[in-house]
TrEMBL record:
Pfam families in the cross-refs: p450 (PF00067)
Taxonomic path: Eukaryota, Viridiplantae, Streptophyta, Embryophyta, Tracheophyta
GO MF annotations in UniProt: heme binding; iron ion binding; monooxygenase activity; oxidoreductase activity, acting on paired donors, with incorporation or reduction of molecular oxygen
UniProt keyword terms in alphabetical order: Iron, Metal-binding
UniProt-recorded name of the protein: Abscisic acid 8'-hydroxylase 2
Alphabetized SUPFAM superfamilies for the sequence: Cytochrome P450
Any one biological process term the GO annotation gives: sterol metabolic process
Domain of life: Eukaryota
Length: 472
């Protein structure tokens, strides 16, 4: 069984008058999927943009696509004419996440679920799990001390555990975390593979794991529905006035896990990398965090939402990381009718991919874009032309995708990224043990080898400038 294909149809009169955007559709069915996912995506995009301009056609994961990369084009798709484009995914991804997930719906069902999910991830709600986030960080530290670790893998552990708390609440006794994590990782391995659901292919293995994960989630949901208990997102979904089925609940739970886990891990890893590369910047961030910590100790309380406003430098470091890493290169939309744009035809049913990465690295909007420079967000000059949202540029988009809602709450609002960052900066010393500055794509960009770092306890009397590279 092969999942996801596109059937070409005879062009109508309007289509005959307009040309498709320039570009290449690649091989039959395979298209240019392998090109995109087996090389540096920036190379793929830059070559296309240099040859074809800001709008071009391609073929990815069994779907004909049009990529747009100028701010005006992105605004056209996501804001001014958003009614012409619906949120979507390739069929293979929809099958994997689940048909009832918020991502794939509009109308009343979408609005209702969006309110429930957003309410769960408001700053006031996230603040309630700050002690749990701190507990997770502190629980990982003993496994790291005096060892060389893969920072990205450890950040994945952290972000997955935080996602579990946000979804199921602080009480996790009825959840087999290891089994849940194992099933999820197996699904993730096939997420961006060619959608060939035949034995031996990564997509087939991922779909088998997805089925096992769905069964596991439904058991948890059924038990909590019967006991009429449960915090976090699952509790909010089960308490919905219009009762949701188990399938509707589990698809949305899985969608939230998928939307948050890898993006969070990748960004936290890049923050560690950039701070390690700049000892002077790390010292300044450390002083800022120490000031917050002294205030919390004096008032005998934990971190609160208002405290994040007292971390301007840390916030700018996070903003610059979002821009420089551009974890999410694009998002998916689908033309609901034939659309004319800049003299080209975007046929009904084609995927439209607003491309964020090229804007984030354009000298038209950012001075010296390849330089990591948090100070560019200090005076708010040229960068205000675009917004940095972990790949989601248009914060006024009329239809928020699930990733946008969750990443905005989990990353851009600050608490979940500031809590572990504060703890790591104040508690441990990390030193990068690999000089290779290369990038790997899993599929999100991460430092080479996941950033190999040596972690040692940080004692107040031994604080020193960090950021130099040491040899194995």
């Amino acid at each position: 069984m092969v999942v996801g294909y596109y059937r070409w149809s005879k062009p109508n009169k309007k289509q005959k008058k307009l040309l498709l955007p320039p570009g290449s559709m690649g091989w039959p069915y395979i298209g240019e999927t392998l090109k995109l996912y087996t090389q540096n995506p920036r190379s793929f995009y830059s070559k296309k943009l240099e040859r074809y301009g800001d709008i071009f056609k391609t073929h990815l994961l069994g779907c004909p696509c049009v990529m747009v990369s100028s701010p005006d084009a992105v605004k056209f798709v996501l804001v001014t004419r958003a009614n012409l484009f619906k949120p979507t995914y390739p069929p293979s991804k929809e099958c994997m996440i689940g048909p009832w997930a918020l991502n794939f719906h509009q109308g009343i069902y979408h609005s209702r679920l969006k309110k429930l999910i957003q309410a769960t991830f408001l700053p006031s709600s996230i603040q309630a799990i700050v002690p749990d986030i701190e507990r997770i960080v502190l629980g990982l530290l003993p496994d790291w001390e005096n060892k060389i670790i893969n920072a990205h893998n450890e950040m994945k552990r952290f972000s997955f555990d935080v996602a579990m708390v946000a979804i199921f609440g602080s009480e996790l006794k009825d959840i087999d975390m290891e089994k849940m994590r194992d099933f999820y990782y197996r699904v993730h391995e096939g997420y961006n593979s060619m959608p060939i659901n035949l034995f031996g292919f990564p997509y087939h293995r991922a779909m088998k794991a997805r089925k096992s994960l769905d069964e596991l989630l439904k058991k948890i949901v059924t038990k909590r529905r019967e006991n009429k208990d449960g915090g976090g997102l699952v509790g909010a979904l089960l308490r919905s006035v219009d009762q949701l089925t188990n399938s509707q609940v589990t698809d949305n739970l899985f969608g939230v896990i998928f939307a948050a886990q890898d993006t969070t891990a990748s960004i936290l890893t890049w923050i560690l990398k950039h701070l390690s590369d700049n000892g002077a910047l790390l010292d300044l961030v450390m002083k800022e965090q120490e000031g917050i910590k002294r205030e919390l100790n004096k008032e005998k309380r934990g971190l609160m939402w208002n405290d994040t406003r007292k971390m301007p430098l840390t916030t700018r470091v996070i903003q610059e990381t979002l821009r420089a890493a551009s974890i999410v290169s694009f998002t998916y939309r689908e033309a609901v009718e034939d659309v004319e744009f800049q003299g080209y035809l975007i046929p009904r049913g084609w995927k439209v991919l607003p491309l964020f990465r090229s804007i984030h690295h354009s000298s038209d909007f950012f001075i010296d874009p390849e330089k990591f420079d948090p100070s560019r967000f200090q005076d708010g000059t040229r960068w205000q032309k675009v917004s940095i949202w972990d790949g989601f540029i248009m914060k006024q988009s009329s239809h928020h995708s699930l990733e946008r809602d969750f990443v905005t709450a989990k990353l851009s609002l600050g608490l979940i990224k500031l809590v572990p960052l504060s703890s790591l900066i104040l508690i441990v010393l990390w030193e990068v043990v690999c000089k290779d500055d290369g990038v790997e794509y899993r599929p999100f960009p991460v430092p080479k080898q996941g950033l190999q770092v040596k972690v040692t306890p940080l004692l107040a009397e031994k604080i020193k400038i960090r950021g130099h590279v040491v040899n194995n």
